[in-house]
Amino acid sequence: MLVGFILATVMPPMVLAWVGGWLMRHLAPRLGWLDRPAGRKIHTTPMPTSGGLAVWAAVVAVFAVGQAGLGWLKATGQLHNPAPTILGLPVPGFAVPHLAGLWLQSGKLWTLLGAGTVLMILGWLDDRRPLDWRLRLAVELLVAAVLVGLGWRLSLFIENPWITGAASVLWIVGLVNAFNMLDNMDGLSAGVAAIAAGMLAAVLLMVPNPQSQEPQFFVAGFLLVLVGALVGFLWHNRPPARLFLGDAGSYLVGFWIAMATLSATFVVLENGEPKRHAILAPLCVLAVPIYDMITVIAIRLRAGRSPFEGDRSHLSHRLVELGMSRAQAVGVIYLLTATCGLGALLLHQVDMTGAVVLFGMVVCVLVVIGILESAARRGRSEGT
Fold first, then answer.
1. Of 78, 255, 264, 336, which has the fewest CB atoms closer than 10 Å, so is most exposed?
2. SS3 of 155, please?
């Protein structure tokens, strides 16, 4: 059942994103949707951009087909049928017990897809002609605030809704910008997003919903559809890239991953008591994008520049300065993401002491990287 569920959620968007990426590679130059080399950019030839449109279209198309199938079952009175069919074709067995629940959750799904579309359009416009950072941030804050107002928010075991609401808005906007900042080398942002979404999905398939005691198929399925779309797109974005994700895609994946973490439950019950430390799972999985964003902002502020002013101070650039090739730097960041994310798979299984050890390991990994970077910068300054 689990293998069938994973294949059914990953394969269709992967194929669609691969086809969509191929179309974008051929259409973008004709439409003038090109990222031209200039200033801090490291590519040397005009590159088709807005590959995020292919990711968006693949995800939306998969859910649109699924929604149409649910509509058919609703219209024919088969939502509660033990052996439903769509146009004579049987519904996969793993999906049958969840059809009624999928129908009830479809409104929330399309709210997330619609909000993601707003941010995708914002990014697409920014790809065409750079927008003022204040306008971009205002739209991001507005979208995040609306969704938090509709009920999506972090579970922090804090009763004050103003604190949890503000933290949730900050989490959403932070991840949108973290993945946007990470999109600075071939395959980097999309690859890290695919690893992170895949690990979060694995956690949700392992952590049961406290009410139903079943794996969290709804949110995990959403994340796996995103993984499939990102993997299909990465065929075109792998080094040397032939298509860029663009702001349209980086805004989109950061937002959808953030919203998936707000839609899921990471806490499990043990003897009737919640393991509260399990809420740190998303922080482990997303530690590397967050680390990159925080350090980049700190470097820019220390230099007296705007945190929204682009430069080559990202983690990937700093690894290249250590002597790595760009492909090696991307590979190291993939491994760092996977290493930090592995702790999330165990958080719900350990006690508080174990959680401190796991989270400490994540912190140590990032501190080691920081020390290596600092030593390399000091060595270069002493040698000049």
1. 78
2. coil
Spatial CA neighbour of 230 closest among 202, 185, 275, 188: 188
Which residue, among 111, 137, 109, has the nearest Cα to 123 in the 3D structure? Answer: 137
Q: Which residues contact 333 (CB under 8 A, 6 or more apart)?
A: 188, 192, 288, 315, 316, 319
Q: Are 236 and 249 in contact (CB under 8 A)?
A: no
Q: Check if the beta carbon of residue 325 is closer than 8 Å to that of residue 262.
A: no
H or E element that contains 126: helix 99-128
**Dihedral sign from CA coordinates of 166, 59, 223, 341:** negative
Contact 203, 345 (CB under 8 A): yes
C-alpha to C-alpha distance for 96 and 91, rounded to whole angstroms: 7
Q: How far apart are CA 245 and CA 236, in angstroms?
A: 10
Please say whether the beta carbons of 376 and 324 come within 8 A.
Answer: no
